[in-house]
Sequence to fold (458 residues):
Amino acid sequence: MIPLTLGEIASITGGRLANAAPDVTVTGGVEYDSRKVGPGGLFVAFDGEKVDGHSYAAGVIAGGAAGVLATKDVGVPSVIVEDQLAALAALATHVVRNLDKLVVVGLTGSSGKTTTKDYIGQLLSRLGPTVAPAGSLNNELGFPYTVLRATPETRFLVLEMGARGIGHIRYLTEIARPSIGVVLNVGAAHIGEFGSVEGTALAKGELVESLPSDGVAVLNADDPLVSAMASRTSARVVLTGSSAADVQAAEVELDGSGRASYLLKWGGRSGHVALGVVGQHQVANTLAAAAVALAAGMDFDELTTALGEVGIVSGRRMDVFRNPAGVTVIDDSYNANPSSTAAALRALASMGEGRRTTAVLGYMAELGEHEISGHAEVGRLAAELNIDRLIVVAENARPILDGAAALADKHLAADQAEAIAILKQDLRADDVVLVKGSRYRTWDVADWLRRPEEVQPT
Fold:
């Protein structure tokens, strides 16, 4: 964060000082985890369901923090506000407005946001100091928290934007207005909250509406609901996709490890790209990242090389590893929706030629009235791809099993422990196992596959 005194923070947030001199300066970061607060930092004390952050205030000050953002007097140097989230938003807005050389990149989509944000961050870091932290920091807390990591030295700030309804992305863009905006796709993720994919598109399009006329909107030409957003912005539109696009991937091929290569085309130029990440869906993700890098001024030849060097930064997202038993594992267990699960299943199938494939699939949340059909659709695809073995975790995910009626080797596990027990019965060296589910639904399975002492091939 840019250095600010506690007096300035009180003024910006509409708070009041308690037990503090107004000229004490915050020179460190802003953190809501007391364990991460460093010297000169600002600790945001939230009232949690189980733990009250205010109880850690004295400890962080003793450790060298400059002050606490609180909602009550805790007897240490503090700025007391009514609402910490609103205060963080105000602080973040102030920071962005005082970094006039900062390029803000915002991106949204139903799937692939975090991975693509990581790719953009890796590319832009070649051009200058970049803030694009790992993880899905895309809500009313994570978004301003990310903004507040920008300093006077930061050139690029890459912000992921999530939404649970109309107006959510607009709110985020009012905190930090992007000059480059990316919309990846519109799918069934969170459809239970939006009501329809059209409702999702309406919400996601708030990003391009926020762009200035001299900005850039990067839109997926292969998704009609996304490409139609071109009419909702005055910014320059750059289309990405497999055809009829400004930044295009042609001659896409997959190798035996599920990694794509393609011919990148842009502005009459072309260059070969060989990705090091797994899954054909990564082509679309890297095209979006390429469009941002080009808009930011990256040399085309440097870009083709750099795309081949981007990797997985945020955990449990197409994290492919070979465990000590010789089993290849695709840990994509951070989250799941029908579109992202379909992409992961296709990656599993492409990696499994000549090897036995197993998909461990958990419940996909927030599908609303599409819950049964969305799960069944995933099961049907598993059967169409001839996945050798399917393990469905928990009763609420049973429709996946119903959709996969054509598969002979399929199981319903009551919980993750039973799924692990099924795997233990017949896990072979050189198997390929995909683990996928909405947050926490299948994490234990992926973690068990990482532990060498428990994985014994038959």
Notes: The mean pLDDT is 95. The longest strand covers residues 269-278. The longest helix spans residues 84-97.
